[in-house]
Amino acid sequence: MSELIVVNISDVKVAPNPSIFVTYALGSCVGICLYDPIVKSAGLAHIMLPSHPDEKPSSQIFRYADTCLPESVKLMEKFGCMRSRMTAKIAGGAKMFKVASDSAFGNIGQRNIEAVKKTLASLHIKILAEDTGADYGRTVYFNSQTGKMTVKSFAKGIKVF
């Protein structure tokens, strides 16, 4: 069995087959599993916020959906992946905080999900599976050998996509 490749918050890792990735503690953050089924190379990103602020053009690009995903695709292409074959599976984007109004802060998980979907659509990458929203945290494992995303949570147990 391969050693786990740990993806931290505001991070992305890409590796050839065989690889197993993990990212812990997805609350309002979203984990994005990218995969090329022909070369079986994979990537996992852990984004924290929907869009990169214009006033800081080069800071923390992996923190934001709109800048992390294009860079993740470029990294995968260096491993021989082709964007036209890439697919995605996503998890996270929970509403972790109860707030009096439906403010932007309280709804950051939903905004992250929307930004991930919009960015993947602009990159022409199809989402094959998702486990998003609700009000609980998740840990995501992604296996490049099988292309399967496993989502673990205390609230819902283990789901495999």
Question: How would you characterize this protein structure?
Answer:
The protein is an alpha+beta fold and 161 residues long. The protein has a single domain, classed as 60s Ribosomal Protein L30, Chain: A, CATH 3.30.1330. The strands form two sheets. A five-stranded mixed beta sheet has the order 1-3-8-9-10, with no helix packed on it. A five-stranded mixed beta sheet has the order 2-5-4-6-7, with helices on one face. Helix 1 crosses helix 2. It is globular, with a radius of gyration of 15 Å. The mean pLDDT is 93.
Task: Present the secondary structure layout.
Layout lengths: L3 E3 L4 E5 L4 E7 L3 E7 L4 E7 L17 H13 L9 E6 L15 H15 L3 E7 L5 E6 L4 E6 L3 E4 L1
Parallel strand pairs: 1-3, 6-7
Antiparallel strand pairs: 2-5, 3-8, 4-5, 4-6, 8-9, 9-10
Helix pairs in contact: 1-2
Please outline what is shown here.
The chain is an alpha+beta fold. The chain contains two helices and ten strands. The protein has helices at 65-77, 108-122; strands at residues 4-6, 11-15, 20-26, 30-36, 41-47, 87-92, 126-132, 138-143, 148-153, 157-160.
